[in-house]
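User: Sequence in, structure out. Go.
Assistant: Echoing your sequence, followed by the structure tokens.
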Amino acid sequence: MLEERSFATVAIASVRAQAENTPPPRALWTTAQLGRPLGEPNDPAFQRRVLMAALGLLTDANGPVILRDFTEDPPGWSDRPGWVPPPTRAGPADALAAEVMALRPAWERARARFGRTTVGLALQPPEAWAGFIARCLAGEEAVVAGHASAALAWRFLCDDVKAYYGEAGQADGPAPSSRQLDNWFWNATVAGAALRALRVAGMESANNGLRTVAGRFFVPTPFVDNG
């Protein structure tokens, strides 16, 4: 409709097959991580190159459908040599709570280093997360004050857990790649296993909202079947 009214448009696509099937009048596909079509945070030079490539399609007259590839991988895709995740020191007793608290010093350092945090959506402190997840896995549609539904409470808890671990993993030295952080979280932490279990619990719930958020937002597709 915008194009019919003489407004030229261009999309930046993270999933090429989706762009091919839609298809928009113009689209630039990037190799960046899903959710980061312009690449990594704090890399304005790379982000500008993506934007300029996308805007360049506005002058291309080869349509009506134009699909181009931006094949330069974001620098953040390159693994950082020698990166070691922060220690979790989780024991068998109450492993998730122990792991979360073991990471607290690294998370505090990251928050001080970057002057911000994205943790806080769950409206629960980190020390409450393990108990909340345990209630959910026991079959309770657990909620917290401030969220209108169990679906929102569960979704924002998952967001906070992932943000907390991701920030802790960047507390010291040069940043690891997104791939390193993801592989560590989903394949080597108690929290990653807990969120996969929470996804299963949500999808098996009779609550339609829980089924929706569990299937769409808890676990990235490459890690759904791990563990």
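User: And one key feature?
Assistant: The mean pLDDT is 89.
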